[in-house]
Amino acid sequence: MWAELAVTTAKVVVVALAMVTTVPIMVWVERRGAAFIQDRLGPNRVGPLGLFQPVIDVVKLIFKEDVTPAAANKGLYYLAPLISLGVAMVTFIVIPFGAGHDVSLFGVPLRGLIVAPDLNVGVLYLLAIGSLSVYGIVLAGWSSNNKYSLLGGLRSSAQLISYELAMTLAVLGVLMATGSLHLSDVVARQSGAVWHWNAVTQVIGFAVFLVAAFAETNRLPFDLAEAETELVAGYHVEYSSMKFACFFMAEYLNMATASALTVTLFFGGGTLPGVTLTGWLGLFVSTAVFVAKMCFFLWLFVWVRWSLPRFRYDQLMQLGWKGLLPLATLNLVWVGIAMTMGWLR
Amino acid sequence: MSAYIPILLFILVAVSFPIITILIAKLVQAGRHDPVKAEPYECGIKPTSEAHDTRFSVRYYLIAVLFVVFDVETVFLYPWAVMFRKLALFGFIEMFVFLAILVVGYVYAWRRGALSWV
Amino acid sequence: MGTREQRLAAIRKSFPDEALVAEVPGGDLQTFRVDRKVLVDLARHLKDDPDLDFKLLLDVCGVDYPERAERFESVYHLSSLTHGHRIRLKVPMPADAPVVPSVYPVWRSADWFEREAFDLMGILFSGHPNLKRILCHPAFQGHALRKDYDPGQRWLLREGEQDEPVWARAVQEDEDHFETQVLNLGPSHPASHGTLRTVVRLDGEVITQAETEIGYLHRCFEKMAESHTWNQVIPYTDRLNYCSSMMNGVGYALAVEKLLGVEAPPRAQSIRIILSELSRVMDHIVDIGANLNDIGAMTPFLYMYEAREELYTVLEACCGSRLTMSYVRVGGVSHDVPADFGEGVRFILKRVPQLVADMERLITENRIFRQRTEGVGKLSSEDAIDWGWTGPCLRACGVPFDVRKSYPYMGYDQLDFKVPIAHGGDTFARYLVRVEEIKQSLRIVEQALEAMPPGPIIISDHNVALPAKEKVYTEMESLIWHFKLVMEGMKVPAGEVYGFTEAANGELGYYIVSDGSGKPYRIKVRPPCFAIFQAYPHMLKGHMIPDAVAILGSLNVIAGELDR
Predict the structure, then answer these.
(1) What are the pLDDT digits (tens) for C321-349?
(2) Please, which residues have CB within 8 angstroms of residue C543's CB and are 6 or more apart in sequence?
(3) Domain C221-563 adopts which CATH fold?
(4) Chain C residues contacting A via beta carbons under 8 Å
(5) Which CATH superfamily is domain C4-126 in?
(6) Please, are residues A100 and A85 in contact by the beta-carbon 8 Å criterion?
(7) What's the pTM value of the predicted model, to 2 decimals?
(8) Fewer CB under 10 Å: which end of chain A, C or N?
(9) Which of B43, B47, B117 sits opposite C188 (nearest CB)?
(10) B48–C181 CB contact, under 8 Å
(11) How far apart are CA C243 and CA C553, in angstroms?
């Protein structure tokens, strides 16, 4: 019992530390990456290559004055950043970062680098918790008692729920192929060869999922909730200091979740086609592979952000309801037919 | 039940982390409060009306209702998807009948302009 | 309709009475003194008679002559795009009743110009739908451009005095619009370039009503100009359209030179052309970049800013400053260009097209960009002319009007370039026109650089230009000449002139009245974006907030020029 708890705690600590370090690294990658794309230098003064810039940013944010608008609804105003960041963090639990089913720690089988290996509703948990993030944004938008925030909150609630539909439908195809809600099973099914990856067998579903993931994380070209040139900063106009930082961290964590999820659902997770390793080596290699795949998608987020203009609100809804939703259903039909006919294993 | 212990542990971490950082910031930051700072920001103009007083456009609600309809649909589809292999052809046909009914509703909503914003 | 006689005859058909409409002899433009009783009728005739066809009202301004019996004069500048001719109307009015009928029903472009004349000169335009202050604060008292207004006095403005559109107050009680809300976009908004305020009424996100407020950057340049010598005005012109400061100075110098009857030497003209066209490139680059940034594409914005930095480096090498150049002088330019000027410009000719091509590859065919801009902020050519639009925005509506082609100055007729037009009249068309104009301007620069002659850079006229420094130290006559010019300023013969050039935003006009003293009697700038921006609130209806931002960016409103 205690040993099991210790293992679980160890996993929680590892994943939480990974999250806490992911954010500053991503901020650095984003800023240096933007500079690289835009033909300029970017932050390069604090530490080697400007690596400590995010640390300095955090220090600055901590020392910033925290201004609460007089007309705000105080309780909800304080609750909103907690929901945003909290939700962004707990989605990480069910993601299988690495294999390692045959190793044990303190005499307890590790069952992969996944915090909750016994949770048999992994995908459902992820989608359910993930959709809670809209509360953080809506409450922030409404409680600030600011028109820009309100518009940003309304925009993003409509956006998030619209794209959530397309996303869940796209995930449905993967579940049909897997026959389980457990993300480890999803990964296991895709092992062996590249053409076992769901990204190959369900191209439409993958495309829909990726687009919806961009929309769900509020990233360009779907960053309408903040849209700095239209709504100034959208739902977090009135937030400052660490409360603002909570939203900021939540955005980057959501990106990490979305990337991890894309890798898990469509790119074979930590598996490397043609390579089968066991024991601790297998655990480390699969984790490294997972992180490498994830980095690609994280970079994709950055890359797309600095390449594309922003959608307009009605165009965004149009794309979600009239474009992605039928496409996701089409994917469902394809998977159904392909599996019934025996084209997919 | 033991499957949910890690979740509880993690929720503890996830809730305490933002609270602790915000509290640390509260302790170290300077606070020079000023009623002008606490005014709502509207590009430097004093707002004539409060954001809380405004009624949202009814179209936002329409989107929400449509979402509920289709989300319930996907919830129904989840157990079916997981059991797809076992249900075989029967489940396949049955579910596509269900989907077809939904598509009719979808086409109806589209034709009535519920999916277009302007 | 070429000659003055024919135009006069066409007017005389309907207005035979000499007492009501009289031609003023001489002058740079054919000028008519019009009795205010017949102003609106005459205006309608001028607009509708196909032989006259004055569809474009360029400018309305007031002039104050305190010593005259009829103290105020309302001055109108008209242009016909089909016949290519221009006239000026002057409507005198007495000091005790400075009232003149509004020509807004005839030309909508009179809207803001008349408000401005009311604000600064106190002329009342009867029949104007919204005659209130535009550049000064509503709590301001007096009319700053009147000769008896003391510019030294101070006004204290108390907090809380702010102007709201009438409809903005009524929204809460309005039953038909109970779902709407009123939102201020600006003055302190990331997408308001300069300080502009737009009050919009939103239904969801759709704008149902809009009104703009300008004047946040108003410094009454025209009043300041009246207390400075002619050359001292030039630094002030730099602050009009600060994205292309060179062209404002060139326009001003050309207008004064027209009044003086002199012409700058060929080398100076050539320098002016090169730097003006580089400024135009710069202005378009800033506009496109900022517009794209507002639409959400930040990377092309930074590509464009790199190009702008390179351009600034060349300008800086000429005169020592990057933004406000103060390089032009009446009669020439202040210094000769540096020895490596040609190299610098050739580098620009190579580098800027590369950056523009990079930007175009990212944007022009991008579907999101096309969706965001096509059909957004659409204006027909008739409406555009009616609003007094000129420049790239008018050309994007399909009207091939460019002062450089229609009324060539500084030798633009010697250069081979095309005037790009587009037919959409929307934000995308304006983008396309500007991109093409960048390329055409670079062609002009290339040709002008090849043909740049040696020689003096400023005329040698005792009344106009300072003598060379070494001559001041060695020659008595030059010393006196220098002393008189510095102490008294140049003497510009009494008279009036409307000098106009093609600035980056359109026709930049200087209406200058001189009384023969060492200082301008009255300078009225016709800023191109003033006419363009007045159509903006009307274009917004039915669009969404993101469109408002995209349209504003594509109109290239520069607050320095708008508010003066």
Answers:
(1) 888 888 898 888 888 888 888 888 999 99
(2) C206, C207, C376, C377, C551
(3) Cytochrome-c3 Hydrogenase; chain B (1.10.645)
(4) 181, 183, 189-191, 202, 205, 292-299, 302-303, 306, 362-363, 366, 368-369, 371-372, 544-547, 549
(5) NADH:ubiquinone oxidoreductase Nqo5 subunit (3.30.460.80)
(6) no
(7) 0.87
(8) N
(9) B43
(10) no
(11) 14
